[in-house]
Amino acid sequence: MKNTTLPQLYQEMRRVRTFEERVGELFVRGQSAGSMLHLSIGEESAAVGVCARMRDGDTFTTHHRGHGIFLARGADPDRMMAEIAGKDTGYCHGKGGSMHIADMGLGHLGANAIVGGGIPAVVGAGLSARHQKSGAVSVAFFGDGATGQGILYESMNMAALWKLPVMFVCINNQYGMGTRIDQATANPDLHERAAAFGLAARTVDGLEVEDVVEAATDLMEQARGGTPAFLAIDCYRFYGHARKDKSPYREELEEEEGRKKDPVLQAREKLLTTGLMDTAELDALDDEIAREMDAAIDFAIAGEEPQMQSMFRDVYAPTEPEPEPVRTRLDRILAQG
Amino acid sequence: MALQETTYRDALRLALHEAMQTDDTVILLGEEVGRYGGAYGVTKDLIKEFGADRVIDTPISEAAIVGTAVGAAMTGLRPVAELMYVDFIGMTMDQLANQAAKIRYMFGGQIGVPMVLRTQGGTGRSAGAQHSQSLEAYVMHTPGLRLAMPATVEDAYHLLRQSLQQPDPVVFIEHKGLYTMKGTVDADAEPVAWGQANLLRAGADLVIVTYSRQVHHALVAAQTLHSEHGINAAVLDLRTLNPLDFDTIRPLVEDAGRAMVVSEGVMTCGVAAELAARITEECFDFLEDPVVRVAGEDIPISVSPLLEQNSVPTPELIAETARKMFP
Ligand SMILES: Cc1ncc(C[n+]2csc(CCOP(=O)(O)OP(=O)(O)O)c2C)c(N)n1
Ligand SMILES: [Mg+2]
User: What is the value of pTM for the model shown?
Assistant: First the structure.
């Protein structure tokens, strides 16, 4: 297995943290496509801890707060940032943006702006994996808010019924927009629901990334063997829901406490106290990552806007005719008159 | 109360406020409508005044939100459910189209479903393919559902008040690009009646039939057509698509002899298609030209602002197209 030593896990989490900070900067500089940017700061151990156990050929879907997951699966920060800026040089040529980023090459079946929208696809991917005997697992990442959607339960039931190599990962950052988890459900022990459907189910605290890795190792092994799994990871959404939300619905004290549950700092402290890395080494690593992510911003800003005609591309397969533009149609009709 | 300067957003809020004050069966329910005050701020602070029993924050469960509204409406409440984005309507479509829309009919007229489903749609925020659509045609294609789409601050208020008096389910679609638009509301004035279109600009050469944000694009285009090309275009704001006020459309088109329909929704099988077909059938003998549709491209909306802006009708496209109708 790759990337499971603490220095490696720290490095990946720091990359996610710094990337997200740069996304915030892209927005402030007026270079992002819109403000619907959802940062995963505070949730790095979920992305990195689970992805550390995924293999080449595995597939996954994410929710709208999925930058960190994609990065942890090996995404190129340049092309991610360019996509977030709506540029042709991005993963989806500026059509998808932050909430609809994807890369089939890395098994990323797509981020989703519909809460719960990406969940059932992993059931389908599980069917494919079984049919093709590929040994792959398919993982759905989603937030606690998605536990309000019926489709989660339909999907878990089918995965359990058909014994599919599927894992459901609920990143419980305590909030869906302004609604705290206990305001959205009478039973916040989310893994109990999955257990009721017959899935292998656990909840883990996301503070220690190694705990997440341990839980993911256990559950993903079971999923690969045909016992679908569910993992809830407790963490805290450090900042507002999207870029313009300043979380007026949360007490400052609560936020302060919540931000103490910082998996990146936790790992850093542990590296120092165990002597695995010293401050100079950590600082050098952080600097190197900062340069990598600065370069991503430069790449995004330098990128070309999509060509206007590209708007008609990829509605259908490339072998099919593109939809006729309204202008062309109008010119044709009005020329007859 | 009388005349007040306000915004589209606050006019909506005022309508909800007054309805809740005068009728204690009115309740609001939806994601973030309470403490958060609505994703676009329409229900801001209403929970403070009316309490969490009447302004109800829900889990992210669109199908059940609409279904709950259906049941509440059948049993004595007048629920206003909020769907944060019209793009999520598909998730509620069974409750809306198979339940709300058909209950009166299936059950032989025993009961109606007097609920309002407030939502918002349209482009303008780089919100991407799943948060920028104009899906009013889904609703208009379903008998049993009323459909209101306010374009002005005045109508944000009056149409919502009127929606809350309807005996049948009303889908009320706001436009995300209009919330900060300023205007005046006269709560005491006699509003344009429910189901009636509003002629916002007279013009003898061409009738532009439209609704929601495209009303404003059409008005800009009409101004350009007049000042730069001497073409006089009328602009008709439909206000409600069901009921559809064809009695107002007909004489205008018969007089002008030319009609254009403008909609932000995609062209194919859209509201514009229905309107163009109807005008063609009913006014055929009076038409000098085919009825022209200016509508959204038959494509999803991109997050790229450049592609997004050009996926839907612009004032320039409306004016340019109208000009070509007068060779
Ligand atoms: C079907 C649907 N309903 C509502 C929304 C609006 N919305 C976007 S994110 C969100 C909160 C999601 O919370 P959670 O699943 O916990 O994810 P988090 O934002 O905390 O990462 C809501 C209500 C949406 N995008 N899709
Ligand atoms: Mg959450």
Answer: 0.98
Tokens standing for A173? 């950052």
CA pair distance B200, B216, nearest whole angstrom? 10
Q: Which of B131, B175, B216, B217 is catalytic?
A: B131
At the second CATH level, the architecture of B198-323 is 3-Layer(aba) Sandwich (3.40)
B253-277 residue pLDDT tens: 999 999 999 999 999 999 999 999 9
All residues of chain B having their beta carbon less than 8 Å from the beta carbon of residue A305 are 304, 306
The pLDDT value recorded for residue A337 is: 61
Measured between alpha carbons, how far is A69 from A45 in angstroms, rounded to an integer?
A: 10
* Ramachandran class of A133: left when φ > 0, alpha when ψ lies in -120 to 50, beta otherwise: left
Q: Is residue A311 part of a domain?
A: yes
Q: Give yes or no for a contact between B235 and B222, defined as CB atoms under 8 angstroms apart.
A: yes
* pLDDT exceeds 60 at position A129: yes
Distance from CA of A185 to the nearest CA of B (A): 7
ipTM score of complex: 0.97
**Cβ contact, residue pair B292, A334, below 8 Å:** yes
**Mutation for testing the B interface, residue in A61, A243, A330 having most B CBs under 10 Å:** A330
The answer to whether B287 faces chain A, any CB pair under 8 Å, is no
Q: Does B267 touch chain A (CB under 8 A)?
A: yes
Q: Which of B17, B31, B32, B62 is catalytic?
A: B62
Looking at the structure, give the CATH architecture of the domain made up of residues B4-185. 3-Layer(aba) Sandwich (3.40)
Amino acid A1: pLDDT: 45
| Mean pLDDT, residues A256-278 taken together | 98
Dig out the tokens for A80 from the structure: 């991610």
